[in-house]
Amino acid sequence: MAGFRALAEQVRNPRLVATQRRTALRKCLERFAPYGHRATWHHLCTRAGIATQDRDPDPERLVAALTELEEARALWLAYEEEFAARRRKEKHHGIRQPGALDEWHRRTWGGCDIVPCESPQRHPAARLAVVLRRMITAMEAGHPRRDCPVCGGTCFAWLPDATAAGPACLRCGVLAPPSVLTPETLTAAARTHGAGAFAAA
């Protein structure tokens, strides 16, 4: 099975037809998809100007989408290296009890669903790397907040099947990790019904 880099080379390979290059980009998302596979695909297509069902897209647009994905992946790999180094140091000093950051990292291991979204069509508009950096910064700060770490929105709603990931921001659709929000914000989110809230947002 080809790895991310080999698939990225296929996306950039001018000797391959556009459909093959599109397939390679979709397979890249099996290795790294910050919003989840479908939401990340929708995000990349939207930003690169590709119709999500277009089987023969402009190769230059495919490369633009890949470039954004690679930028986010490089940021995430650097974070994972820093995280591993920190955990080694903590264990050396006898700190073995995992904290909120460790739990979030365990759930996002492998680079998929790092910042899960309310639906495949509802996700932040900013570049993937910008969104990842904002979430990493918020998690590392360790201070619960009242607003969304991605967009600054202050209204959240719990969705029926997303209790582990956290409440959804009504502005950008991101499911915020519970540990990054204040108890008051989580309580307010519990009073908001997910499906109806998003329909009205």
Question: Could you explain the architecture of this structure?
Answer:
With 201 residues, the chain is mostly helical. 51% of the residues lie in helices and 2% in strands. It has eight helices and two strands; from the N terminus they run ααααααββαα. It has a two-stranded antiparallel sheet with strand order 1-2. The protein is globular and about 55 Å long. The model has no long low-confidence stretch (mean pLDDT 88).
Give a quick set of tags describing it.
two-stranded antiparallel ribbon; 201 residues; 2% strand; single chain; 8 helices; mainly alpha
Overall spatial form? globular
The first-to-last residue Cα distance is: 42 Å
Strand order in the sheet with the most strands: 1-2
In the predicted model, the low-confidence regions spanning at least 5 consecutive residues are: none
Radius of gyration over alpha carbons? 18 Å
Binned strand content: under 5%
The profile of the biggest β sheet is:
2 strands, antiparallel
**Tally of extended strands?**
2
Helix content: 40-55%
Number of helices: 8
Helix-strand pattern? HHHHHHEEHH
Overall mean pLDDT stands at 88
Q: Which structural class do you get from the secondary structure elements?
A: mainly alpha
